[in-house]
């Protein structure tokens, strides 16, 4: 079989070659290069949630401003998600990921120089844009370079870099300011900020160190990160597609098999001229047609829920644990980060077990998270508070992972980055609203966490009860769809 110059290569042909190359060094390198986005984001978010109390001491922030300082990051996420759809589906996954690393690192570092709440909010917005640009592209890239049976497993491991980033940040908090109560005259406005001033000001020091992972991963990704063969193949860039496929084979110790579909590769410029670039309008048409409409609506709700819970809890837990006197706040944060890792392993196990479909896994995880959240309410026995907080942390991460994997697999390759970007952008309303809702409800209720925790339980219960009706396409074990015409074979490629 030969391919026609400029025509997209079939998803089945690509997946057959990727499956034949197996799992090896190439996928491990891609895991590390994409996982860095999750690591940097986890580090940045935990630090931002942790220093809110310190910033309040210096700037006398009201509840709205405290919430806005974190919510603005997620506003940036939404903007970045939408930009990522265009960048990732028009120019490739790799440029989007590299841009994400640069923005997270540069603006995260500049956060340490903020001298007013307004400047802090502006800088954090651009940190959020950077994270938002990276997320849809790493979510899309990993399924597109992995063998079918490894797709969900590697995606779960990639998302698992986020708790690793949180652990890194928790260790920073533990070393620099374990009880989040350090105050110094070096933090005051007007101080001549020499290096020693930064190092003696705990919140500025935390901002500096939390930005460093982005620069570390960027340096390696610049040279080691490869473009997605599905992205290239969907646009008829057959020569470039073959180059990536042969790189996968060489890196994994398999003899390169030549052009993907057996013919001479077309010229790159011919490919680009004959195949139109993806547009957001065409992606929206696919997402809202009869086949994908219910899936799109539900996944937007699922992303809202995962963001409200995962990122909301990342903001709430530092304040929640300050009320638990058995350990320092930093120790509790470190434990929650470590306990998130079993959540990653649970997700890996689910992805590896063929008897549990992604839809069933989504329902079960959401139901368990809803029940565990009830243990954090004030009416529950006090002894349940900390264990349920730990349990909710790792269950919400499992839900996060499964939601992301399903979204990245269910939409066609030609529009995947845009579709994932739109779902995650709408989901960011959850992470935007969570800190504001928590801070305002804390004021309304004289310090009670119950309103926020109840929202977590209700949202997870809705997901559990409606997923079976709304989701009609099971993705586990199927070849990725190239366009909107079909999803792919029901058998493994």
Describe the structure.
With 493 residues, the chain is mainly alpha-helical. It has a single domain (11-231, 278-470), classed as MFS general substrate transporter like domains (Growth Hormone, Chain: A), CATH 1.20.1250.20. It contains 19 helices and no strands. The longest helix is centred in the first third of the chain and has 35 residues, at 25-59.
Total number of β-strand segments? Answer: 0
The SSE string, one letter per element, is: HHHHHHHHHHHHHHHHHHH
Number of domains: 1
**Residue ranges: pLDDT <50 for 5 or more in a row?**
1-6, 189-199, 262-278, 486-493
Strand composition percent: under 5%
Helix content: over 70%
CATH topology title: Growth Hormone, Chain: A
- Average pLDDT metric: 79
Structural class: mainly alpha
The CATH C-level class name: Mainly Alpha
What's the gist of this structure?
The chain has 493 residues and is mainly α. Helices cover 72% and strands 0% of the residues.
Write the layout of secondary structure elements.
Blueprint: H1 11-21, H2 25-59, H3 63-90, H4 93-111, H5 117-145, H6 151-159, H7 161-176, H8 195-200, H9 202-224, H10 229-234, H11 238-251, H12 268-274, H13 280-287, H14 293-322, H15 329-352, H16 358-373, H17 385-410, H18 416-444, H19 450-470
Helix pairs in contact: 2-4, 2-5, 2-6, 2-7, 2-9, 2-14, 3-4, 3-5, 3-18, 4-5, 4-9, 5-6, 5-17, 5-18, 6-15, 6-17, 7-9, 7-15, 14-15, 14-17, 14-18, 14-19, 15-17, 16-17, 16-19, 17-18
Question: What features would you highlight for this structure?
Answer:
Growth Hormone, Chain: A; 72% helix; 0% strand
């Amino acid at each position: 079989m030969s391919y026609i110059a400029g025509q997209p290569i079939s998803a089945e042909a690509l997946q057959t070659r990727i499956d034949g190359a197996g799992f090896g060094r190439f996928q491990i390198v891609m895991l590390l290069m994409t996982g860095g986005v999750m690591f940097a984001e986890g580090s940045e978010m935990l630090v931002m949630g942790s220093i809110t109390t310190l910033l309040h001491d210096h700037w006398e922030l009201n509840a709205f401003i405290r919430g806005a300082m974190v919510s603005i990051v997620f506003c940036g996420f939404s903007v970045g998600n939408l930009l990522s759809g265009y960048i990732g589906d028009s120019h490739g996954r790799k440029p989007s990921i590299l841009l994400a690393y640069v923005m997270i690192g540069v603006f995260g570092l500049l956060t340490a120089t903020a001298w007013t709440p307004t400047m802090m909010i502006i800088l954090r917005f651009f940190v959020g844009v950077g994270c938002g640009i990276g997320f849809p592209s790493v979510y899309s890239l990993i399924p597109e370079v992995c063998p079918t049976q490894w797709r969900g497993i590697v995606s779960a491991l990639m998302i698992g870099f986020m708790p690793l980033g949180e652990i890194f940040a928790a260790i920073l908090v533990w070393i620099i300011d374990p009880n989040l109560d350090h105050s110094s005259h070096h933090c005051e406005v007007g101080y001549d900020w020499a290096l020693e001033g930064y190092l003696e000001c705990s919140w500025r020091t935390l901002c500096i160190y939390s930005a460093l992972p982005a620069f570390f991963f960027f340096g390696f990704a610049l040279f080691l990160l490869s473009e997605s063969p599905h992205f290239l193949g969907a646009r008829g860039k057959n020569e470039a597609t073959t180059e990536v496929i042969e790189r996968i084979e060489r890196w994994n110790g398999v003899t390169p098999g030549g052009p993907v579909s057996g013919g001479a590769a077309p010229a790159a410029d011919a490919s680009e001229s004959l195949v139109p670039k993806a547009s957001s309008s065409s992606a929206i048409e696919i997402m809202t047609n009869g086949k994908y409409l219910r899936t799109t609506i539900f996944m937007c709700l699922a992303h809202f829920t995962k963001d409200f819970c995962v990122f909301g809890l990342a903001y709430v837990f530092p304040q929640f644990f300050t009320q638990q006197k058995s350990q320092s706040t930093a120790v509790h944060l470190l434990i929650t980060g470590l306990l998130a890792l079993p959540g990653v392993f649970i997700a890996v196990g689910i992805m590896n077990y063929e008897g549990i479909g992604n839809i069933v896994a989504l329902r079960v995880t959401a139901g368990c998270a809803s029940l565990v959240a009830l243990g954090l309410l004030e009416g529950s026995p006090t002894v349940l508070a900390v264990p349920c907080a730990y349990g909710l942390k790792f269950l919400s991460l499992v839900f996060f992972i499964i939601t992301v994997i399903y979204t990245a697999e269910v939409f066609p390759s030609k529009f995947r980055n845009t579709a994932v970007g739109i779902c995650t952008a709408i989901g960011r309303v959850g992470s935007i609203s969570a800190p504001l809702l928590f801070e305002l409800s804390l004021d309304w209720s004289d310090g009670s966490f119950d309103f926020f925790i109840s929202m977590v339980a209700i949202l997870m219960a809705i997901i559990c009860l409606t997923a079976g009706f709304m989701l009609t396409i099971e993705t586990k074990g199927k070849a990725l769809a190239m366009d909107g015409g079909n999803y792919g074979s029901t058998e493994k490629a």
